[in-house]
Amino acid sequence: MTEENAKVEELGFEAALEELEGIVAELEGGQVELERMLERFERAIALRRHCAALLNAAETKIQQLVDEEGTTEPFSAGDIDADQT
After folding, report:
1. CB contact at 8 A, 43 and 71
2. Cα–Cα distance for residue pair 71/10, rounded to 1 Å
3. Distance between CA atoms of 15 and 3, rounded to whole angstroms?
4. 21, 27, 79, 85: least buried by Cβ within 10 Å?
5. Alpha-carbon distance 42 to 44, whole Å?
6. Residue 30: inside a domain, yes or no?
């Protein structure tokens, strides 16, 4: 099964993002017939939603891991200076 024919939900983040970028480039090129453009646009929307869902899931997982370890403080450039003195 080619990437273009793969179900969006089965794609990993990197593959979905790469395909989305390809579709955007294709549509921006302006050489796409209307029917094909609509099909590609619909796929692009599905890919964008899938990428957003994967990012949200990753963010949730990271938050769960941080919560298991306890509270953390925001990182700032001043922290580096303080550690070096």
Report:
1. no
2. 34
3. 8
4. 85
5. 5
6. yes
pLDDT tens digits, 23-69: 999 999 989 899 999 999 999 999 999 999 999 999 999 988 888 76
Closest CA to 43 of 20, 75, 68, 66: 20
Only one residue has tokens 């450039």, namely: 77
Q: How many domains does the chain fold into?
A: 1
**What's the distance, Cα to Cα, between the start and end of the chain in Å?**
57
Helices of type H across the chain: 13-29, 34-69, 77-84
For residue 85 the two structure tokens come to 């003195």
3-state class (DSSP) for residue 32: coil
Is 32 domain-assigned? Answer: yes
Task: Judge whether 36 lies within some domain.
Answer: yes
Q: What does the pLDDT read at residue 3?
A: 53
pLDDT value for 64: 87
* pTM greater than 0.90: no
The verdict on residue 82 lying in a domain is no
